[in-house]
Amino acid sequence: QVQPVESGGGLVQAGGSLRLSCAASGRTFSTNPISWFRQAPGKEREFVASIRWSVLTTLYADSVKGRFTISRDNAKNTVYLQMNSLKPEDTAVYYCNYLDAWGQGTQVTVSQ
Known about the structure:
By secondary structure, the protein is mainly β.
């Protein structure tokens, strides 16, 4: 079973950028979508973006379109989430999901 492992979170000022990584541990990603979700304090977990490994189809939540970009590196078996023009409302724990497996999450904090 593939276990996603996230990294790359941190503290950034509004307008800044961060890149999150989701690496596959155990096995390789296959044809199913790999997705990013996020959960802010007191709120439900919400979809952010997804990518299909084989055909590069991408989907984005309306709130991040034009600011976030999801991509993948076949050789490294890793999915990235490039986050630009970050806003305080992007502050959340970001999770990588593959099938029924979730990573441990990585904290993103955007200050005013």
